[in-house]
Specification:
Blueprint (H helix, E strand, L loop, with lengths): L3 E7 L31 H14 L3 H8 L13 E3 L3 E8 L5 E5 L1 H13 L20 E3 L8 E3 L2 E3 L2 E3 L1 H13 L5 H9 L1 E3 L2 H9 L4 E6 L13 E6 L6 E8 L7 H14 L1 E3 L10 E6 L6
Parallel strand pairs: 4-9, 5-8
Antiparallel strand pairs: 1-12, 1-14, 2-12, 3-4, 3-12, 5-9, 6-7, 10-11, 13-14
Helix pairs in contact: 1-2, 1-7, 4-5
């Protein structure tokens, strides 16, 4: 089986909506039912990818990779399999830094497990295997300067330097696009591994919420027949996700994944997902990780 590991990085605040209001938030982001952590739905990623395919004006390629649509067409499933975009690192506000890139053993274990299931060997995996077990301390790189952290108003006074964090930081820096070395350097320098329970609690309340207003043209206010006020939750800038793309039929022998990577992924490097296109929301990088194919 040929598979491809891809990363998604939010360049602007991003809204991919869940179902129903939550408390005062009318339009929450989509979250996992079990952990409460945000993710990018596989259907949203596949839709963005198919849209890129439509732009290359190659109907045969699009139908083969994603399946045909329309009445009077012999429908069949596409060749590609998309997983959801799993969270890998989340920006948490810090008193000592503008923010840190936080992850946890739960997320890293999921990446390790699914990559192996899809036949992918991760870079330098043995060097950061120690991070897969949950730990009571916040683990940081050996050159991390602060001795304590305040993350989203929660103090962490015991930081444990760990060479495995350095190794993971090197991997993530190497996974960044070749022309984004500064971003990769920040990911490595500001990477922290937070205990699972603390991470899910922090991320659960860290997403920004924006008030959105539509004014009634007759009254000039939110009252009236067409005025409205609602609250919309966002993924912040600088979230890092990953997803896997594979082939439904092993008889493809890697052709479908190869065609997607070479013909469509260049146009997905800077793309848009979710709502708010006209307000600049949902701009992301989406790119393949070098050397991730089985």
């Amino acid at each position: 089986m040929t598979s491809l590991l891809t990363l998604q990085y939010t360049l602007t605040e991003t809204h991919v909506g869940g179902a129903g209001a939550v408390g005062a938030v009318d339009l929450p982001i989509v979250r996992e039912a079990t952990t409460g952590l945000p993710f990018l739905p596989d259907t949203a990623l596949k839709g963005v990818a198919r849209d890129a395919g439509d732009r290359v004006k190659n109907e045969d390629l699009v139908n083969r990779l994603f399946g045909p649509t329309g009445e009077g067409t012999e429908l069949h499933a596409g060749s590609l399999v998309f997983t959801q975009g799993h969270l890998l690192a989340y920006p948490l506000r810090s008193l000592q830094r503008p923010y840190v890139y936080a992850t946890c053993s739960l997320l890293l274990s999921r990446l390790d497990r699914l990559a192996r299931a899809f036949g992918i060997t991760l870079s330098n995996a043995k060097a950061w295997q120690g991070l897969l077990a949950d730990d009571a301390a916040v683990r940081v790189g050996t050159a991390f300067a602060p001795k304590a952290l305040l993350l989203e108003s929660c103090p962490f006074g015991s930081l444990r330097p760990d060479a495995a964090v350095d190794a993971l930081g090197d991997v993530l820096r190497g996974w960044m696009p070749a022309d984004e070395g500064e971003t990769g350097g920040r990911v490595k320098a500001d990477l922290v591994v937070v205990p699972d329970a603390d991470f899910t609690a922090l991320v659960g309340s860290a997403a920004p919420v924006r008030a959105r207003i539509r004014l009634d043209p007759e009254t000039g206010t939110t009252s009236g027949t067409s005025g409205n006020l609602w609250y919309e939750e966002m993924l912040p800038t600088d979230c890092l996700f990953w997803s896997l793309i594979s082939e439904r039929d092993e008889r493809q022998n890697g052709k479908a994944v190869h065609d997607f990577q070479t013909l469509l992924m260049p146009s997905l490097r800077h793309t848009q997902i979710g709502g708010g296109m006209t307000t600049g929301h949902g701009r992301i990088w989406w790119w393949p990780v070098v050397g991730a194919r089985a």
